[in-house]
């Protein structure tokens, strides 16, 4: 038995949600938790409307991103397996700037994911420079500067 901090009744442990606290349970019972959530829902309709819009947008983009991720992920997996089995060898130099780079730090850049084993081996900096989707990188390297 545990006392709920909101309604101040003693209830069995099953009536409390789990938590990472000392006893592993939330301080208030499920009924009080649900009542507080309902009040929060009705008090803040603008926040709820915004979260519904975001969920809707994520759903539309999500299907396209999942499809892209599967094609991209498959290509990455194939390169990783080919390198591991020795069918594809990493060079010692970046193909863009020519700088000697440890093999573990070379990235396989795909121009076309439909040709998964056709990669350019680039250092991290050059990969940022050549691939606009790779992320923002604010350093310069061998005369190139990022936009």
Describe the structure.
The protein has 147 residues and is an alpha+beta fold. It has two domains: 2-43, no CATH class; 45-145, no CATH class. 42% of the residues lie in helices and 16% in strands. It is built from three helices and eight strands; from the N terminus they run E-E-E-E-H-H-E-E-H-E-E. The chain has a two-stranded antiparallel ribbon with strand order 1-2. Strands 3-4 form a two-stranded antiparallel ribbon. Strand 3 and strand 4 (25-29) form a beta hairpin. The protein is elongated and about 70 Å long. Mean pLDDT is 82; it is low at 136-147.
Short key terms for the protein model shown above:
two-stranded antiparallel sheet; disordered C terminus; 42% helix; alpha+beta; two-stranded antiparallel ribbon
Layout of strands and helices, then pairs:
Blueprint: E1 2-3, E2 10-11, E3 16-18, E4 25-29, H1 30-43, H2 45-85, E5 107-110, E6 119-122, H3 124-130, E7 140-141, E8 144-145
Antiparallel strand pairs: 1-2, 3-4, 5-6, 7-8
